[in-house]
Amino acid sequence: MVYFPKNHSRTPAQKLVRKLIGVAAVALIIFAFWNMPYDILREERFRLYGETRTTGLVTEVRTEASQGDSRTYFIDYKYIDRDGFAREAEASLPKSVWDKFHPGTRLDVLYVTGRPALSRVHGEIEPKFQIWLRSLLD
C-alpha cells in the first residue's frame, strides 16, 4: 500500500508537464481518427461477410498520366451479380497485368455478396493498408 503525505502537492513544473502530456495525447488521438481510411475499413468489413466469384468482361483498356512521366493503367469491366444486375467497375493494374487485357477479354471478378457494387479483380493495385487489413481479418 502506498501512503501519500497529507500535504503532497505537485510542483508547477509537474502540473505543466501533465497538462502538456494530456494535450499531446488528445491531439494524437484526433490525428489518428482524422487520418483513418474509413472507406477501406468499410470495404473490408463488407468483405468479411463473403465474396462471390463471377466472370466479367473487359469493356475498355486505358491509361492516364500521373505524376511526372509515369502512367496509371486501368481496365473498365462489366459483370453480372447473383441477382442478375449488370454492374460496371474499373480497376487499376500494374502494366505487366494490364498488358494481358483488351476489350472483350474475360476475367474473374470477386464482388462482395452483401454489396455487389464493391468488386475487385486479381492483380488489382490496392493500398498496402488494405492488403494488410485483409490478411489480418482472414
**Would you tell me which CATH topology applies?**
OB fold (Dihydrolipoamide Acetyltransferase, E2P)
Main beta-sheet annotation: 5 strands, antiparallel
CATH class: Mainly Beta
User: Based on helices, strands and strand pairing, what is the structural class?
Assistant: alpha+beta
Helical content stands at 25-40%
Give the strand line-up of the largest sheet: 3-2-1-4-5
Describe the structure.
With 138 residues, this protein is of the alpha+beta class. It has four helices and five strands. The two termini are 46 Å apart.
Protein topology:
Layout: H1 12-34, H2 38-47, E1 51-65, E2 71-80, E3 86-93, H3 95-98, E4 106-112, E5 119-121, H4 128-137
Antiparallel strand pairs: 1-2, 1-4, 2-3, 4-5
Summarize the structure.
With 138 residues, the protein is of the alpha+beta class. The protein is built from 4 helices and 5 strands.
List keywords for this structure.
single chain, 138 residues, alpha+beta, OB fold (Dihydrolipoamide Acetyltransferase, E2P), five-stranded antiparallel beta sheet, 34% helix
